[in-house]
Design a protein that fits this description.
Blueprint: H1 11-19, E1 25-29, H2 35-38, E2 42-45, H3 50-58, E3 71-74, H4 85-96, E4 103-105, H5 107-115, E5 119-123, E6 132-135
Parallel strand pairs: 1-5, 2-5, 3-4
Antiparallel strand pairs: 1-6, 3-6
Helix pairs in contact: 3-4
């Protein structure tokens, strides 16, 4: 354990987050997501909700502010405007961290983008559509984005 860091930020996850550069992407995935299929680097956090993992990641990593959306969720199949409970929780976490709302991608476009991500974090989120892609921003001197 380290002071001031969420215990969800394991050594493996911290290493991945520190290794990512500006514009690299990481996927936080629910338990149904084909994480092993899409991951070049896979980190497992079973039993933990995606919102808790998102909160921990955003405590140490800024989102990219040079793009329209630094976070993207997966759209509900057949209802692109629906906001599932897991997505509503993620949007609340983003807002708490001062981030703009996440955009969304059609399911297969999300999978395609996830396949190119730096890493995938397989959470224990059991609610459907609990998936988000985060694009790393820039840490300026003094620690602010």
């Amino acid at each position: 354990m380290l002071k001031g860091l969420s215990p969800l930020l394991s050594a493996d996850l911290l290493y991945v987050l520190a290794s990512m550069g500006h514009g690299d992407e990481i996927v936080l995935a629910d338990a149904n997501f084909p994480a092993a299929t899409h991951a070049s680097e896979l980190i497992r956090l079973p039993g933990v909700s995606v919102a808790r993992v998102l909160d921990a990641v955003l405590s140490v990593m800024p989102l990219d502010s040079f793009v329209a959306q630094g976070a993207m969720t997966m759209q509900v199949v057949g209802d692109a405007d629906a906001v599932p409970p897991a997505v509503a929780d993620m949007q609340a976490v983003l807002a708490r961290h001062g981030c703009p709302p996440a955009g969304s991608l059609e399911r297969f476009a999300f999978y395609e983008r996830a396949a190119g991500a730096f890493a995938v974090v397989a959470t224990g989120e059991t609610r459907i559509y609990g998936n988000v892609i985060l694009r790393k921003g820039v840490v300026l001197q003094g620690g602010d984005e």
